[in-house]
Design a protein that fits this description.
alpha+beta; globular; binds coenzyme A; seven-stranded mixed beta sheet; Aminopeptidase; 4 helices; 147 residues; 30% helix
């Protein structure tokens, strides 16, 4: 089941992100839950919060700010369902495009976005610190979907 999350779900959301590691900071999660221009959607399995996504409304576009699924629940279609909900939300807002950025090494997430119709618009060279345990920096891929 997918439902909208509210500030009352903050503790559950922090615990989920600590395991999913989508890159959202604790402050980003708190801000998103309290922002009327942002929707936080959660996926539930038997009362356990198994995944979430954050989408923000911008003046013309919308932006996927985070998406994460519990490692034990990945590969079951939860990411696809959450992204479908995010796309529906952007369409409801009449956003022109849904934007996102993703680490160039995050092949699983990139596959999910391509499957849902996103395409690559460009790259920010060396945008992210390299993954833990590796040196240097990593590119961000900029992707978008026309709503
Ligand atoms: C990226 C992420 C959100 C995807 O979530 P997910 O729930 O695993 O995604 P899905 O299950 O919808 O799809 C993933 C794979 O499972 C497959 N799948 C979907 N439903 C399935 C099912 N019922 N049975 C078997 N496989 C299935 C999909 O085809 C897809 O396969 P692929 O990776 O070979 O293309 C998740 O891996 C995650 O939380 N990663 C860590 C955080 C992160 O990187 N976030 C993105 C930051 S930009």
């Amino acid at each position: 089941m997918i439902s909208q999350l509210t500030p009352a779900h903050a503790a559950l959301l922090h615990a989920l992100e600590a395991k999913a590691n989508s890159g959202a900071s604790p402050q980003q999660l708190v801000d998103a839950l309290g922002d009327p221009n942002t929707q936080v959607v959660g996926h539930w399995q038997q009362n356990v919060l198994t995944g979430y996504a954050i989408v923000m409304r911008l003046p013309f576009d919308a932006e996927l700010q985070a998406i994460g699924v519990l490692p034990a629940c990945q590969g079951q279609g939860i990411g696809q369902q959450l992204l479908g909900e995010v796309i529906a939300c952007a369409q409801q807002w009449q956003s022109e495009r849904l934007l996102l950025e993703v680490r160039a090494s995050n092949q699983r997430a990139i596959r999910l976005y391509l499957q849902q119709g996103f395409h690559e618009d460009g790259r920010r060279r060396g945008y992210y610190p390299a993954a833990l345990g590796t040196a240097g920096r990593e590119d961000a891929l900029l992707m978008s979907l026309s709503c």
